[in-house]
Amino acid sequence: MNLSLYSVNSFLILDAEGHRVLAKYYRPKGHPQGESKDLLTLKDQRAFEKGLWQKTKKPGADIILYDGRLAVFRHSLDLIFYIIGGATENEIMLYSALTAFCDAVEKRAVLENLDMVLLCLDETIDDGIIVETDSTTIASRVSRPKADTTEIVINEQTIMNAYQTVREKVQQRIQQL
Question: 102 and 12 in contact (C-beta within 8 Å)?
């Protein structure tokens, strides 16, 4: 039984042809089992991703045990989202994190707003630890504040009012001395 908070080994987004859109591999130094030594090179990561995509390219299932790892995935239009954990991880927790992430990210916005996607990912998973599974909380933390649409009108009347106020304040200060 794994009682560690470090439950995510990697997060992947692959396109319909199996090409990497986003990949984030977690290798925390503080993990109870030590730092991971597998999938360190780009070549190993690409081979793993290609094999995983071959097994999951057709929609149907949403969880698979591949290469000694538990892969929870979700198809969305022409993208596939993956959360990869150890073989003994809780698949319900991994699936909850993936669902929350996918719900928080608008599907078409992945490529257009990769910075927001990475912020959502960081709000969902931090150094391999699932920290949030509520999509509305994730979305609210990373959403950009709306621009202030109230327009400030500066005209001659406004400038004269400001000048008059400053003049009165200066006169009051002088009188106090």
Answer: no
* pTM above threshold 0.70: no
Half-sphere exposure of 110 (CA within 13 A, CB side): 20
Task: Show the tokens assigned to 61.
Answer: 């299932």
The C-alpha atoms of residue 101 and residue 97 are separated, in whole angstroms, by 6
Q: List the chain pLDDT tens, one digit each, 177 residues.
A: 556 666 788 888 888 888 888 888 887 665 555 555 677 778 888 888 898 888 887 877 788 888 888 899 888 778 888 999 888 788 888 888 888 888 777 656 666 778 778 888 888 888 888 888 888 888 888 876 665 656 666 777 777 788 888 888 888 888 887
What phi and psi values does residue 159 have, to the nearest 5 degrees?
-65, -40
Burial 61-80, CB ≥16 within 10 A → b, else e = eeeeebeebbbbbbbeeebb
